[in-house]
Amino acid sequence: MSQTLHLAGWVQDSIVDGPGLRFTAFFQGCTHHCPGCHNPETWPLEGGTPLSPAMLMELAEKNPLCRGITLSGGEPFLQAGQAMEEFLTLAKSKGYEIACYTGYTWEELMTQGTPAQRRMLEFLDILIDGRFMQEQRTLELAFRGSRNQRILQVQESLAQGHPVEETATRWTGEPPAPNPFLHNW
Hints:
Blueprint: E1 5-14, E2 22-27, E3 49-51, H1 53-60, E4 68-73, H2 82-93, E5 97-101, H3 106-112, H4 115-121, E6 126-129, E7 150-153, H5 154-160, H6 169-172
Parallel strand pairs: 2-4, 4-5, 5-6
Antiparallel strand pairs: 1-2, 1-3, 6-7
Helix pairs in contact: 1-2
């Protein structure tokens, strides 16, 4: 029998945790305790709703229009291990794009992370890394709360051995450069 994941909550059809319609899972527990955190109720390491990986996948699949899953928190990497890998394996097998918010930086995960945390990266498409910093708070950047946070292409970062920032406008929110060959009629 698989282990359980502990969730502070979830949103069936989020439009603020990544592009498109997404299922967002808020994992219970965080040790970063960033001043001005959006979800301080997720900080306690105990509590939350225990769900098996299969039960969490069932929740994600309730809306057939959702094609993305976002892991948020709390700190999802605190629950890295067998149950998280089972859930992520299920999600990938069903074709979901998986994004994850973390207070850790890419560099911290690669140099100080546990083997389970580094394995967790292998399932992710997008990583929004870095602690929320109130003095760098912004409402201007897509899918980030502070300017220090990066949106990273995880698979490309793993392949190159260093962080590779996402450039697709669906994630960055930046408008495409004007095309000089198109006219405004």
